[in-house]
Amino acid sequence: MRREWLVNKRNAAGLTQKEVADAAGLARTTFASIEQGERVPSVPTAKKIASVMEFDWTLFFRDQVHETSIWKEKEAIRFGAR
């Protein structure tokens, strides 16, 4: 799932994928894969990107936590635990 919020932040900062990647010490293709949602960044990589673009690095992981919580809630309902 494409990280629209990341694309929007990068565009708002007036940066290209290459500029962000270079500043974060990544290959442009790696950053593009992260932006497209094809890769999940490691914590150190998330911190580097967030530092370059000036946002909270935990944004990368909030969607995963939210999706996991929804899945657990659905499973609890499905198996009568609620």
How would you characterize the overall build of this protein?
This protein has about 80 residues and is an all-alpha fold. It is about 70% helix and about 0% strand. The protein contains five helices and no strands. Helix 2 (about 15-25) packs across helix 4 (about 45-55). The longest helix has 20 residues, at about 60-80. It is elongated and about 50 Å long.
Short characterization:
With 82 residues, the chain is mainly alpha-helical.
List strands and helices in order, with pairings:
Layout: H1 4-12, H2 17-24, H3 28-35, H4 43-53, H5 59-78
Helix pairs in contact: 2-3, 2-4
Biggest β-sheet: count, sense, barrel? none
Instruction: Report the span from N to C terminus.
Output: 30 Å
**Count of separate DSSP helical elements:** 5
Radius of gyration: 15 Å
Tell me the β content: under 5%
Helix content: 55-70%
Shape designation: elongated
Low-confidence stretches: 65-72
Mean pLDDT: 84
Which structural class best describes the helix and strand composition? mainly alpha
- One letter per element, helices H and strands E, the order comes to HHHHH
Task: Offer a few descriptive terms.
single chain; 82 residues; mainly alpha; elongated
